[in-house]
């Protein structure tokens, strides 16, 4: 599990660890860690390969300069572009120059700096660290534009320069794709978007900041243990799961298992207009191998034809015993659909609401209030940005994690906000960021699959021996769904049905 912290938490831990630091010892160790990742990213052979350092003021720039000195020892041709020469780290600069490193002052020679970036084999971003907040100053922004337009991969130190380390403000990668010109003066004013380095990899020391988990610009996250992480008594601001965590949480069948000890999930999905939603959602639930899947809706015949093991009925009233419900994908928003949703919300078991179910909640907010009076079982809401805005129009989606936390508190439900970085929040303040996925998971039907995955996990958690609470089920389900998408894409398969094949092994 990756634990992420606020900048204040990380700074506090760093201060305690650096009290006795002499002669930049910790910075030199950090530099070796940076150089080790850089050497993995450089093409072979290393001697003669061109590395460009983007060097800002203070310790982040010092890390880059010391790392550049190490790379010079390995024969790389290393050039440091100084964005603020007067405030460059003195010790790092001296070590770099002793190894024969070359310098460019970006404030006087921007054209030369941009030219060097276009020819680089690797770019190391040491412009800004944890103490910085967007937007970037003009010189740095121009360098970022050029770095993102260059063909070389970027390795960021601490964080990609330009992102908010706490994740409170989103940044767009600075590139030609958003109308920017490399080396040109960035636009400014209320209409301009903040820009950030689009890194292939980011190395951080001890523990990441929350913003690193939230920003897609982070790329591959590398964590070097320099003894700078907060101790275990400090609660993380957010978490992210890895495959090992998910394997631990996935339900396992035992010798004495039966359908009710493995989880029975009920699904209300699909309609005459959207028949495929029922198949997608049910197929995902079946792929997770629960004890039993019950379907209740107008597509019962089609569902049973595809999966004979599913027990189907036309109405949730007649469905039989379940240990969790999923309602919403493609079910419509007419009177019969609203009645079915009401039946599901009246059940004293965990309930996941998605898609059309969320639309009905937005138009009938009293439904959740009545649910709270009838049941203490958890609710999971899985909106995309548009559905979220309809449910909580007062919350600012520019700060996704804060908005998701507020929505979870207000609704007393686990809220999963879909996106490039899906975020999940619980009413008690716990939060997670999902790091798996692929862009085509934003296509039609994949949300129906996600609902079925999480619903199956909710049912498993509501068994006598179940250990998954609703928050963990949502986090694990998002990871499984995203990893299945990655594996399907790697096999050249796209489209929501392609996920079924990979769900059972994902994570």
TrEMBL record:
**Is-annotated flag, keyword Metal-binding?**
yes
Q: How is the cofactor bound?
A: Binds 1 potassium ion per subunit.
Q: Report which gene this protein is encoded by.
A: nnrD
Extract the ranges annotated as region (Disordered): 161-196
Q: Which InterPro entries match?
A: Carbohydrate_kinase_pred_CS, CARKD, Nnr, Ribokinase-like, YjeF_N_dom, YjeF_N_dom_sf
Sites where the protein binds (6S)-NADPHX: 59-63, 129-135, 158, 277, 330, 384, 448
Report which reactions are catalysed by this protein. Answer: (6R)-NADHX = (6S)-NADHX; (6R)-NADPHX = (6S)-NADPHX; (6S)-NADHX + ADP = AMP + phosphate + NADH + H(+); (6S)-NADPHX + ADP = AMP + phosphate + NADPH + H(+)
Q: What is this protein called?
A: Bifunctional NAD(P)H-hydrate repair enzyme
- Please list the residues that bind AMP: 418-422, 447
Q: Which UniProt keywords apply?
A: ATP-binding, Isomerase, Lyase, Metal-binding, Multifunctional enzyme, NAD, NADP, Nucleotide-binding, Potassium
Example GO biological process: metabolite repair
Family, per entry: Belongs to the NnrD/CARKD family. Belongs to the NnrE/AIBP family.
Q: Enumerate the spans annotated as YjeF C-terminal domain.
A: 242-507
Subunit note: Homotetramer.
- Molecular function terms, GO-annotated: ADP-dependent NAD(P)H-hydrate dehydratase activity; ATP binding; metal ion binding; NAD(P)HX epimerase activity
**Function recorded in the entry:** Bifunctional enzyme that catalyzes the epimerization of the S- and R-forms of NAD(P)HX and the dehydration of the S-form of NAD(P)HX at the expense of ADP, which is converted to AMP. This allows the repair of both epimers of NAD(P)HX, a damaged form of NAD(P)H that is a result of enzymatic or heat-dependent hydration. Catalyzes the dehydration of the S-form of NAD(P)HX at the expense of ADP, which is converted to AMP. Together with NAD(P)HX epimerase, which catalyzes the epimerization of the S- and R-forms, the enzyme allows the repair of both epimers of NAD(P)HX, a damaged form of NAD(P)H that is a result of enzymatic or heat-dependent hydration.
What PANTHER family does the entry give? ATP-DEPENDENT (S)-NAD(P)H-HYDRATE DEHYDRATASE, ATP-DEPENDENT (S)-NAD(P)H-HYDRATE DEHYDRATASE FAMILY MEMBER
Q: What cofactor is needed?
A: K(+); Mg(2+)
EC number(s)?
A: 4.2.1.136, 5.1.99.6
What are the binding positions for K(+) in this chain?
Answer: 60, 125, 161
Domain YjeF N-terminal: residue ranges: 10-234
């Amino acid at each position: 599990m990756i634990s992420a912290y606020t900048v204040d938490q990380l700074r506090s831990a760093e201060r305690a660890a650096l009290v006795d630091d002499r002669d930049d010892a910790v910075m030199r160790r950090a530099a070796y860690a940076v150089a080790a990742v850089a050497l993995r990213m450089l093409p072979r052979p290393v001697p003669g390969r061109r590395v460009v350092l983007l060097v800002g003021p203070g310790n982040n720039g010092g890390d880059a300069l010391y790392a550049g000195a190490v790379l010079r020892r390995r024969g790389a041709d290393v050039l440091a572009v100084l964005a603020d020469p007067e405030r460059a780290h003195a010790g790092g600069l001296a070590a770099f120059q002793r190894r024969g490193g070359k310098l460019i002052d970006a404030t006087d020679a921007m054209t030369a700096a941009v030219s060097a970036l276009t020819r680089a084999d690797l770019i190391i971003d040491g412009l800004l660290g944890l103490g910085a907040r967007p937007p970037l100053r003009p010189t740095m922004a121009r360098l970022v534009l050029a770095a993102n337009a260059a063909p070389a991969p970027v390795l960021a130190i601490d964080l990609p320069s330009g992102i908010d380390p706490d994740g409170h403000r989103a940044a767009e990668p600075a590139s030609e794709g958003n109308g920017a010109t490399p080396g040109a003066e960035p636009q400014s004013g209320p209409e301009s978007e903040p820009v950030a380095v689009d890194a292939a990899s980011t190395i951080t020391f001890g523990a990441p900041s929350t913003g690193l988990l939230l920003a897609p610009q982070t790329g591959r996250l590398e964590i070097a243990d320099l003894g700078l992480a907060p101790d275990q008594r400090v609660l993380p601001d957010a978490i992210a799961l890895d495959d090992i965590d998910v394997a631990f949480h996935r339900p396992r069948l035992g010798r004495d298992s039966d359908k009710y000890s493995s989880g029975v999930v009920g699904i209300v999905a699909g309609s005459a207009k959207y028949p495929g939603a029922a198949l997608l959602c049910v197929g995902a639930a079946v792929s997770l191998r629960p004890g039993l899947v019950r379907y209740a809706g107008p597509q019962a015949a089609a569902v049973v034809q595809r999966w004979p093991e599913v027990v189907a009925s036309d109405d949730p009233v007649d469905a039989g015993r379940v240990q969790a419900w999923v309602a919403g994908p493609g079910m419509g928003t007419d009177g019969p659909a609203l009645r079915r949703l009401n039946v599901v919300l009246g059940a004293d078991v965990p309930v996941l609401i998605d898609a059309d179910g969320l639309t009905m909640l937005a138009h009938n907010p009293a439904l959740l209030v009545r649910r709270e009076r009838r049941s203490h079982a958890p609710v999971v809401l899985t909106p995309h940005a548009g559905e979220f805005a309809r449910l909580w129009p007062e919350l600012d989606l520019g700060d996704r994690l804060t908005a998701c936390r507020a929505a979870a508190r207000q609704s007393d439900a686990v809220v999963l906000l879909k996106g490039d970085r899906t975020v999940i929040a619980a009413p008690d303040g716990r939060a997670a960021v999902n790091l798996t996925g692929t862009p085509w998971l934003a296509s039609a039907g994949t949300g129906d699959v996600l609902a079925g995955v999480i619903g199956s996990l909710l049912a498993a958690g509501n068994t006598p021996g179940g250990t998954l609470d609703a928050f963990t089920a949502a986090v694990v389900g998002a990871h499984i769904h995203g990893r299945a998408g990655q594996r399907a894409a790697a096999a050249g398969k796209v489209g929501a049905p392609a996920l079924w094949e990979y769900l059972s092994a994902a994570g």
